[in-house]
Amino acid sequence: MVCAAIARERGYSVVALTIDYNQRHRVELEAAERIAAELAARHIVLPLDLRAFGGSALTSDVAVPKDGVGEGIPVTYVPARNTIFLSLALGLAEASGARDLFIGVNALDYSGYPDCRPEFVAEFGKLANLATKAGVEGDGFTVHAPLLHMTKAEIILEARRLGLDTAMSHSCYDPLPDGRHCGKCDACRLRAKGFADAGVGDPTVYA
Fold first, then answer.
1. What local confidence, expressed as pLDDT, does residue 187 receive?
2. How confident is the model over 16-62, as pLDDT tens digits?
3. Residues near 89 by beta carbon (within 8 Å), at least 6 away in sequence
4. CA neighbor of 40 nearest in space, from 4, 2, 93
5. DSSP state, 26?
6. 2-198: CATH class
7. Residues 170 and 157 sit within 8 Å (Cβ to Cβ)
8. How confident is the model at residue 104 (pLDDT cuts 50, 70, 90)?
9. What are phi and psi of 21, to 5 degrees?
10. Which whole-number Å values give the CA distances from 152 to 61, 63, 84, 113, 123, in the listed order?
């Protein structure tokens, strides 16, 4: 949400790409729809069932950890997810004539996923220009990650500056059937800590 609003503020016309990968936390698809409408962005929802691969608590029946952010890469890591997502965004960009890709990854307050690091973003930018007709012909792509070096608290303050309703966003990996955040998974803990550190009231409804 914040990433898209930053892109819009910089003068870009935003096309929002949401991947319906049959994730456990499908309520995030509804949040994406609300946010795209709020930002007046063209919104494409692309089905891609990653449960066929499995390998993650988000795409299988493996339990989502609820004991706090620990060491190492957690089981909520979806194999190559951001590489897959950015590759799809790259295809969309080239087909539609866009040359700027924005992704909301964050390398400070996060769960240690390898595809949220600055090195990943930089190398994907190189790949984008090696792997495409546009790139080879000199009409290259730029990958923007404006939240990369921000804490969750800084992202929340940025949302406030941009006039965004943070209650529209969703973070939880294992929401209740009624859509409430579980309050115990890594994503919930990082979200709650971000609001607390920012000194901003948390509108999230936790179980």
1. 93
2. 999 999 998 899 999 999 999 999 999 999 999 999 999 999 999 99
3. 17, 101, 103
4. 4
5. T
6. alpha beta
7. no
8. very high
9. -100, 25
10. 28, 25, 24, 16, 24
